[in-house]
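Journal club prep — side note

Before the paper discussion, L.F. wants everyone to see what a predicted structure for a comparable chain looks like in token form. Sequence:
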Amino acid sequence: MARKDERRKAGVGGRKSSAKPGAERRAGVAKRAAPKTGAKSAAKLAASPPPPPTPKVKFRGRLLEHEPLARYTTYRLGGPARYFLMPADVEDVAKGIEFANERRLPWLAIGLGSNLLVKESGFPGLVIRVGKGLDRFEMKGAIAIVGAGMPTPILARRTAEGGFAGVERFIGIPGTVGGGVYMNAGAHGAEFAEVVTEVSVMDGKGKIRQLARKQISFKYRASNLGDVVVLETKLLLLEEAPAKLKELQGKLLRWRKAGTPFDQPCAGSVFKNPGGAKTAGSLIDECGLKGYAIGGAQVSTMHANYFVNTGTATPSDVLRLIEHVRKTVQKKTGVEFELEVKVIG
């Protein structure tokens, strides 16, 4: 999901705070022994009132400390999150936001981490990973009610099998529905904005709001949802023959396998398409940058707008490659790229 100043895909929305994280620790986590002090320091400490106990917060899901984010991004890169929450339900999400607010920590919501590049420094607050437990799927007529944690390819497959069109072209989008709605993800000429009728979100105070489609402004790979966590959405679909949809999805998957590095660690499209006749990938290719590498990060030889981790890349390698490609394309073509991937840290 994305930070306030780094909005949209990956994830399912997000928010940050300008306050520095405190040194509080979660109840139940072993504390390190305090360092030895001199007699005067010890007397001063003894005279000081003890700090208030850290409030105990019980989650149905899991709360981890100093969890490496590389495990949760498709780049397989990134430093640790101070706290990492895998909520089991909506109540856990609310508790997580309250947990962060009480400690004056920034928080960030993510899905499958497919549009994120996390720096070596990681994230200094709470990362909320929306997934299992928030992946409801129900059809009411032609309306699909979908939890934010459902992987988008599964949504595309289930609706197609049920004879409903509208999201069948999303079969290759490697993210969650919540992240897709938040950033208006799309593929092959279709996007979430075309089918969304309502979105349920949780704001920075832990309150749930239902937003009708007319309250949401979507544009190319963006929305105005702001500092929220997407919880659920309703999608209006159309009836279509399952066999026809299955055939289309087969073609799209074959294209993806043949034309993109789907089996290598990457974050999908690095840059937004600039508009006009040429895509970002074609412009990068025209500049002779396919295969160009910095450290372990490489411009894919299959699709120039995909930058892959060849196995030894660092986040800094990817960032330097992004900057080199951006400057080269601007110098040779006059086109200035805008990042689609979200940089965290």
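L.F.'s comment for the group: Residues 315-333 form the longest helix (19 residues). Keep this in mind when we get to the figures.
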